[in-house]
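A.,

Following up on our hallway conversation. Structure tokens first:
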């Protein structure tokens, strides 16, 4: 149940415009400047000729097939092809290459977790789907042309490099792939997994995250709701809520988690958790303060996403400070090891 909850709640936040799920007519092509040899098509055998001694294939990622549910059908593709579409959908291509590489490793790990350990009951015929609220966002090559326009060539080269430079690298804890969840931006600290989900995982614990309003668009933002809409929304979810004349009694008993996010509060006397509050009012995060006046309730939030695991903007800030992708990943995922995809598949 824990796994279902955690995986199903992964929020991917760079995907607002990619709900148009395209068919995967054309597989993504590796960049000719960076590919050491042509990537075989999905399901094909090893390259006929390899110049790498003792190597069975050019890329470890070529030897893992991922069944991806997108646009209502299941398409098998190589891990390499899939990851290019995930990294491109999940993180801006303008980010530093080390941040994109960290994203590629997180996405590879999350995918392996699905392929090897987690069997979806939502889509049993596919390892992953392209719905970011369930699995990870994925944009196919046609979608990337549409998204990037004239920048396509340079961006696809960069993203392909991020995937190939980290070929086969994944994150493990006690020899198993971790749930490498990530979010857009934090609020000074990331969240413990137990703040957001039912159970805590030892590698998803709160750490400092360096991004600030200088790095992140809308780092601090607000949602304003009229008093009547606020009341109606709460009553819709909690018909037992009571709103006395004194509006200062509408929102009470706010408690905070160790990372400074709203843990619990009472709305009209009913206990509600921070994540539920976030969902009810469409807040960008639970790192929120709340003000109530004669007309409105105003939520002011910092950061974007559930706050657990790697912060993408934080990863970019660390990369710009000179950290490499491994340093970024060990920053956000506590006590993890780097492992080879090939070894995990074999074991
Ligand atoms: Zn899914």
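Then the amino acids I'd put at each of the 347 positions:
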């Amino acid at each position: 149940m824990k796994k279902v909850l955690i995986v199903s709640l992964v929020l991917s936040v760079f995907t607002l415009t990619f709900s148009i799920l395209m068919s995967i007519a054309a597989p993504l092509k590796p960049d000719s400047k960076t590919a050491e040899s042509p990537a075989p098509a999905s399901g094909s055998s090893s390259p006929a000729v390899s110049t790498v001694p003792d190597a069975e294939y050019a890329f470890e990622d070529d030897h893992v097939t991922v069944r991806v549910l997108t646009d209502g059908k299941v398409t098998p593709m190589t891990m390499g092809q899939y990851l290019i579409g995930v990294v491109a959908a999940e993180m801006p291509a303008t980010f530093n290459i080390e941040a994109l590489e960290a994203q590629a490793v997180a996405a590879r790990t999350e995918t392996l977790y699905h392929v090897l350990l987690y069997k979806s009951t939502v889509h049993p015929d596919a390892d992953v789907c392209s719905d970011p609220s369930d699995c990870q966002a994925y944009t196919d090559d046609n979608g990337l042309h549409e998204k990037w326009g004239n920048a396509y060539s340079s961006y696809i080269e960069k993203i392909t490099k991020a995937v190939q430079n980290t070929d086969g690298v994944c994150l493990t804890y006690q020899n198993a792939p971790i749930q490498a969840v990530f979010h857009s931006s934090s609020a000074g600290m990331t969240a413990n997994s137990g703040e957001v989900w039912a159970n805590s995982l030892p590698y998803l614990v709160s750490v400092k995250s360096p991004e600030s309003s200088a790095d992140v668009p809308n780092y601090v933002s607000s949602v304003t709701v009229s008093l009547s809409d606020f009341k109606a929304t709460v009553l819709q979810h909690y018909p037992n809520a009571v709103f006395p004349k004194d509006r200062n009694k509408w929102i009470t008993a706010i408690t905070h988690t160790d990372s400074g996010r709203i843990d619990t509060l009472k709305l009209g006397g009913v206990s509600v958790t921070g994540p539920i509050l976030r969902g009810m009012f469409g807040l960008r995060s639970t790192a929120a303060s709340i003000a109530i006046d004669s007309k409105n309730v105003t939520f002011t939030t910092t950061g974007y996403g559930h706050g657990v695991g790697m912060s993408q903007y934080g990863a970019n800030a660390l990369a710009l400070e000179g950290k490499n992708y491994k340093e970024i990943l060990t920053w956000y995922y506590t006590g993890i090891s780097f492992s080879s995809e090939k070894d995990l598949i074999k074991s």
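Residues 1-54 have pLDDT under 50 and may be disordered. Curious whether your intuition agrees with the design.

B.
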